[in-house]
Design goal:
Helix content is about 40%, strand content about 20%. The protein has 14 helices and 14 strands. It is elongated, with a radius of gyration of 26 Å. It starts with about 25 loop residues before the first strand and ends with a helix. The structure holds arginine. Arginine binds next to helix 4, strand 6 and strand 7.
């Protein structure tokens, strides 16, 4: 027990915990190597009690009883497992769908959406459990530290933050040694280091190992969620998604709660190899990295939503909204979930989505999802108008030449000026 002797005495930011005042720590616990080592290390280094919080955002194949058990055996004073899937879907994924949220053209933000909720829950549980400090397992090179610490510093200025992985200067080998020394069970300790995985019901990311070599094509073993397209069924499958006010509410004619709808959509997409994204990304902290994403639900829901939105919106809305969509995705990626501009943008997204009601059919086949049918009571579309035969009383072809004369006026004048003999 060495209160004087820890590696965390250097504090740069106001919200970083003063090591002398760390008594009871809320640890965001996943059950993996980093946070398990942290659980012991915090008790040792600070002579502090540790309360663990594990948040279920729909990461597949997680056994929360095993995680809780492990935490208790490693000396946690309290363990909490929170099922936040419903809140995550409703308050975080829904607005992302309404904003067609993709960062860098391909990343549907599942991790970026999850972190502010996890950190918000950490604040709630820390206050309830009488903790003075929150600990997380993020490194100093990623976006997640930004999202988590910005959330805590915003919502709970009275709480301190510690990020042991950022400061303890142990590599994987030292962590494994520490684990062995302290009786911390580790899966697959002697194998090649695993990919760095993060997942929830909106997607899964893999980083590390060969993924860091840009010329290295994806190896098969990275795909644990989505089947490889070449192994997907030879028969295509059609799915129909129903939306109400921009939010998916039904799958293949069956009304479903959002969590179940997203989970089922993900399963169907995964079977057909849909949603593999090999992405080069500009992190907030300056690094450029490569991620392999598996996002079967997002790869179906987002194109469907976007198609329906385009159908019910006017040309002017359709020209304008993508700019705000991009700003929304950037703010959320960049860890500024609590920034008022995000709320301002959400108000706009909700307003536009008031008419985004209807059904979109997509055909899934060997890695592709293609929109094939659309229907909406609010479509700004009239089959009679679009065909050449009928005008429906709203459109006069005789007016077209007059329109063209005025529409092209400035362009014609400029052309003449530039091409004067
Ligand atoms: N690149 C993505 C992001 O910044 C995924 C990060 C995954 N996080 C992790 N700790 N493995 O949101």
């Amino acid at each position: 027990m060495s209160r004087e002797n820890h590696t965390t005495t250097m504090r740069t930011a106001s919200y970083e915990a003063d090591p002398e005042e760390v008594r009871r720590v809320m640890l965001l616990y996943s059950g993996g190597l980093d946070t398990s080592v942290m659980l012991k290390w915090i008790q040792d280094q600070y002579d502090a009690e540790v309360v663990c919080l594990t948040v279920n955002l729909g990461q597949p194949d997680e056994d929360y009883r095993v995680i809780e058990d492990k935490a208790r055996r490693l000396g946690a004073a309290e363990c909490h497992v929170v099922d936040a899937r419903e809140e995550f879907a409703r308050e975080y994924v829904s607005p992302a769908i309404m904003a067609n949220a993709l960062y860098g053209g391909g990343y549907p933000l599942f991790t970026a959406l999850g972190r502010p909720l996890i950190a918000k829950l950490a604040v709630e549980y820390a206050r309830r459990a009488g903790c003075d400090t929150i600990a997380h397992g993020c490194t100093g090179k990623g976006n997640d530290q930004v999202r988590i610490e910005a959330t805590i510093a915003t919502l709970a200025p009275e709480l301190g933050v510690i990020a042991p992985v950022r400061s303890w200067q142990m590599g994987r080998e030292q962590e494994l040694a520490y684990a062995q020394e302290h009786g911390i069970p580790v899966k697959g300790a002697s194998e090649t280091p695993p990919y760095s995985i993060d997942d929830n019901l909106w997607g899964r990311s893999s980083e590390g190992r060969w993924i860091e070599e840009l010329e290295h094509a994806p190896e098969d073993d990275v795909f644990q969620l989505v089947s490889r397209p070449e192994e997907a069924p030879d028969e295509p499958e059609v799915v129909e998604l129903a939306f109400e006010r921009g939010v998916p509410v039904g799958l293949n004619g069956e009304p479903l709660e959002l969590v179940e709808l997203l989970e089922r959509t993900a399963q169907i997409g995964a079977r057909h190899g849909v949603g593999i994204v090999d992405h080069i990304e500009d992190r907030i902290v300056g690094l450029k990295v490569r991620d392999i994403y598996e996002v079967p639900a997002a790869a179906i829901v987002l194109p469907a939503h976007q198609e329906l939105e385009r159908l019910v919106c006017t040309i002017h809305q359709n020209q304008f909204k993508p700019q705000l969509d991009r700003q929304w995705a950037y703010l959320v990626y960049a860890g500024l979930w609590w920034e008022p501009l995000r709320g301002d943008l959400d108000a706009y997204m909700q307003r536009v989505n008031e008419t985004v009601t209807g059904t979109i059919g997509l055909k899934l086949y060997k890695g592709h999802a293609r929109v094939i049918t659309r229907s909406s009571p609010n479509a700004v579309y009239d089959a009679g108008l679009a065909s050449f035969s009928e005008s429906g009383g709203l459109f006069s072809q005789a007016a077209s030449p007059g329109f063209i004369e005025l529409w092209s006026l400035q362009s014609r004048m400029a052309w003449r000026m530039r091409n004067r003999p």
